[in-house]
Structure formats: structure tokens, C-alpha cells
Amino acid sequence: MKELKPTGGALAHYRISVTNRDTEFNCKPGQSLLHAMESSARKAIPVGCRCGGCGLCRIRVVEGRYDSKRMSRAHVSEADEACGRVLACRIFPHSDLVIECDFGQATGSGQYNNNEE
Fold first, then answer.
1. How far is Cα 102 from Cα 99, in angstroms, rounded to an integer?
2. How many angstroms separate the CA atoms of 36 and 22, rounded?
3. Percent helix, strand and coil across the chain, each rounded to 5?
4. What is the CA radius of gyration of the chain?
5. Residue 66 CA from chain centroid, whole number
6. Contact by Cβ (8 Å): 86, 7
7. % the chain with pLDDT above 70
8. What is the distance of C-alpha 60 from the center of its chain?
9. pLDDT for res 16
10. How far is CA 69 from CA 9, 11, 83, in A?
11. Which residues contact 47 (CB under 8 A, 6 or more apart)?
12. Taking the alpha carbons of 81, 60, 33, 15 in that order, is the dihedral positive or negative?
């Protein structure tokens, strides 16, 4: 008898949808979102230092669950983080995610110089 694999919590990957770049890629459990994008050869998010210090990979999580590692407050303020703005190199999905890439220029306050919202 063939054994059925469980669904839900036993997924082999999560689906990441980048709404403002019209692209998707998969992310394995325990893998950072930025690493998953690079592994899939997608170019939806800018890549910088890969360790949370430069702020280049800043995104906004629109929908989904994730854990995050420490991020530089120079690039992501507590208010930003509360609104879903995080660094892709420092988050680890726990569900499918819908994100928006933020290509604005960072200022010292963690705010971006672009015309959003």
C-alpha cells in the first residue's frame, strides 16, 4: 500500500509571491527568504551583505508568517517591523508569503525616499 505524505505542516517548501515584481519562488523551511530567491535564480529582491547590515534587501510582508533574526535598526525601525517591513536576508518563512520588494533609498531613520502609500 502506498503511503500518503501529510500536507500542511509537513510541506517541503513555502511559496513566496512578489506582487510588485510578478514573480514567485519556493523557500524551504529553515531557509532565509533571500537565500531561497538566490537559489531559485530569481532577481526580485536586491542582494547586498546577506547579514542584515546594509538594508538593501528590505521588503514588506503583506501576508504570511515568519520568524526573523536581528536586523539593523538603521534600516528597519521597530515601527517598520511592526508594519511588516523587514530584511529578506533575516526572515525565515513559516507559511506561504506574499511580499512587496522595496527598491527605495534608505535614510538614516529607517525610512525610504520613495512615493509609497
1. 10
2. 17
3. 20, 30, 55
4. 15
5. 9
6. no
7. 78
8. 7
9. 98
10. 22, 22, 16
11. 34, 38, 56, 57
12. positive
Neighbours of 51 (CB within 10 A): 13
pLDDT at 24 over 60: yes
Which pLDDT score, from 0 to 100, does residue 102 have?
81
What is the rounded CA–CA span in Å between residue 35 and residue 49?
12
Residues 6+ apart with CB under 8 A from 39: 31
Ordered domains of the chain (ranges, CATH): 13-110 (3.10.20.30)
Q: DSSP secondary-structure letter at 117?
A: -
DSSP 1: -
C-alpha to C-alpha distance for 110 and 82, rounded to whole angstroms: 13
- How many other CB atoms sit within 10 Å of the CB of residue 18? 21
HSE-up of residue 72 (Cα within 13 Å, Cβ side) = 20
Distance CA(79)–CA(82), nearest Å, equals: 5
